[in-house]
Write a structure and sequence with these properties.
Layout lengths: L6 H9 L8 H10 L6 H9 L2 H11 L2 H4 L9 H7 L1 H16 L10 H22 L4 H10 L2 H9 L1 H8 L5 H12 L3 H11 L4 H9 L13 H20 L2 H16 L5 H22 L10 H8 L4
Helix pairs in contact: 2-7, 4-6, 4-7, 7-9, 8-9, 8-15, 8-17, 10-11, 10-13, 11-12, 13-14, 14-15, 15-16, 15-17, 16-18, 17-18
Amino acid sequence: MSTYIEPQTFRELRDSEVLPAPSGVRLNIMQMCQQEDISLPELVSQVQGDPVLAGRLIQIANVPNINKGRMVASVNVELLLLIGLHAVRQMALAISLTESARRGDCKEFDYDAFWGRSTAMACAGQALGEMLQVAPPAEMFTNGLLAGIGRLGLASARPKRYGEVLHTKPQGQELLDKEREAFGFDHLSLAAAMMEDWHFPKLFCTAVLHHENPEASGLDDDDRQQILARVLELAGCVADVCIADTETRSHLLPRLLQLSARFSLPLSSVEYICSRVAWDWSDWGSLLHIPTQVLPEIGAEIAEAAKPPA
């Protein structure tokens, strides 16, 4: 039962098979990760047969604060246990959706732009997860990738009506208001409901629900859900910086610095995060044929944005 939108409404959407959903080998991997009597060697064999999933898991396993300096070169039982079966399941889901839900019938919805920003936000979530150690990097990658999945869900389930909503290019609160008027719920509620249906922990579902405006969540500042929502908000801003043109980026950097200050990140760390995310985003884009762009030398732009007003 959905706790984020009206349960009957969500059941009708899910059962009509119009929402994005995993399939094939990765669906099998997801199901295996939930079995109590799972055969780890068999799971290793399944993952080894998926080069994209295997490569991403190896990359994550080689994060220094995870592997304690021991480099991993192949998928084996030790790697799966190191990352955690829950994170493996989430990664299989994320990659499955990224590869399968690339086109649709909603003409006003830019599918390439959606996945471009989503993959950039996923890379930002992973990098911030590593730096801030608020949650496992693999899980932060997946949460960043799926934070906007409700928009794709609406474009898939209600393409004509959602196209009408998007016609005037509403943003922020205006978009949420128009979605609620048209459907009775918004893309954030749908994203949380979809993640809940995929058995994500409630704290991640709630963080996604509030990540576009954590100030309005009503959660305490030291609540872990609120902290994760703020990290996702920051990841989204990093993604916006990565996908922006030069003029737009100059307007985004002050907000990036403001959000980074909540985590006491120095300018050098902000520059590192942006550069790291741009590199990872390009790598991910080449794997899945998602449009990316080269981020120019960002350090000077960040330093300029940090200067006090004259």
